[in-house]
Amino acid sequence: MAAILGIFGICLLFSGVQETSSVMTVDIPQAIYKIALDDNVTIPCKFTPQTDGANIRVTWTATPDVTTDPAIKIVTYSGPTSIKVYPKYKGRAILVHDIKNGKADLQLLRVTSADTRFHACEVENTDNEEDAVSDRTNLIVLVPPSPPICKIEGVSEYYQNINLTCRSEKGSPPPTYKWQRYDTNNIAQLNPPKATDLNGVLSLYNITKETSGFFICTSTNEIRSEKCNLTLAVMPPSMSMASVGGIVGAVVAVALIFGLIIICCYCCRKKEKAEEYRMGTPEGGEFTDKDPEGKVDGPDEHVSYEEERRVKSAGRHDPQDDRSERSYDRRSDYTDRRDDPSDRRERYDRDDRYDDRRDRYDDRRDRHSDRNDRYDDRRDRYDDRRDRDDDSDHYSERYDSRDRPPSVPPNKPNKPKDPRY
User: Fold this and answer.
1) 150: part of which helix (H) or strand (E)?
2) 107, 94 Cβ separation under 8 angstroms
């Protein structure tokens, strides 16, 4: 009985080994594959047991962008003459296979950042679809960092706080950054006290002249490194270019303003001179209230004929002088409305002085008129005396020439009588 049981157990053991050996397995050697951008990558896929491949199907897929969407199919093997590459991977995906030896590797050409995702290899027996077995791996496409851009944020003056920034626009995985300071002799130095270097931002506090130097930022990821640099020159506030530019701009602005003021004053003065000339400023100087030298007014002053004609001519031109005065008054009113209060006061003062000169001129003309009147009176008296003399000569003709006394001039004094007679 014992022998029968032993033979039965051995049979069961052999049947279990045979069943276990028929179970299929799929293996991708690494959980993560990293490849540089635009390079080619091959992801291996091995499966067991090896068969002739007549009833084996191999499918490579990738995880979708949205987890609820179906998997993205890359390539499918259904037989030696039935290999299908799906449109999205046409020209980039190749299935490197040896089904009898359990090999179905995926080769991707010119990988891009969009290929960074999980990829799965699934093997199934077409005779029993429930026996499908798969394995997956994570493909990471590495993008080297782009050359970083270095900037200074803040004012590089004594006792200010500034930030030195460093950033690469591209890079997968995201790059890390590190700042290094060098002095003017290109010798590496430690960062200033209290400085912080975090995510590409070097913060400097209470900077001084000793903070000046040459700074280099290195951007690094698993593919390669890129660098940028800048020169920091800390200056006193009075020496900053912005302050110098502001001072120069202010000086130029003040100079322009003064120049405009001088030009305006010159133009106004020139215009006033032109107006005074049009309003009859006397040639050779201004009006004065002084009488001509050696000229003394008197009641018996002799008036010449030429002076009388000049006075009468001046009297005949009085209406024209009145028109000139009215025209001058209208121009003065217009100028008063146009000029500012200060110019208007100065013009009023000039008008007053002009009126005073005209009054003095009128007084002198009146005195000349009085002298002319006195001259006319004297001439009338002289004519009267001459008329009377003519009358006396007419009446004397009645007398005999023998009885007529000798004529004596009116103004001739009588001859004194001789005391002897």
Assistant:
1) strand 149-153
2) yes
How many Å apart are CA 139 and CA 82, to the nearest integer?
A: 26
- CA of residue 243 relative to chain centroid, distance: 17
pLDDT on residue 225: 94
The per-residue pLDDT for 13 is 44
Q: Give the DSSP per-residue string, 301-312.
A: ----HHHHHHHH
> What does the alpha-carbon distance between residue 323 and residue 344 come to, in Å, rounded to a whole number?
23
Amino acid 62 reads A
Beta bridge partners of 136: 120
Q: What is the DSSP letter of 55?
A: T
The whole-model pTM stands at 0.45
The DSSP secondary structure of 191-255, one letter per residue, reads PPTT-EEETTEEEE-S--GGG-EEEEEEEE-SS-EEEEEEEE--B-GGG-HHHHHHHHHHHHHHH
Tell me how far CA of residue 285 lies from CA of 277, 280, 352, 353, in angstroms. Answer: 12, 11, 18, 14
Residue type, 401: S
Instruction: Classify residue 75 by burial, with Cβ atoms within 10 Å: 0-12, 13-18, 19+.
Output: buried
| DSSP classification of residue 279 | T
| Strand order across the 225-232 sheet | 188-189, 176-182, 213-220, 225-232
Q: Does residue 63 surpass a pLDDT of 90? A: yes
Structure token digits, residue 110: 């010119």
CB atoms within 10 A of CB 145: 25
CA distance 381 to 405: 27
Question: Which pLDDT belongs to residue 201?
Answer: 96
The answer for 102, left when phi > 0, alpha when psi is -120 to 50, beta otherwise, is left
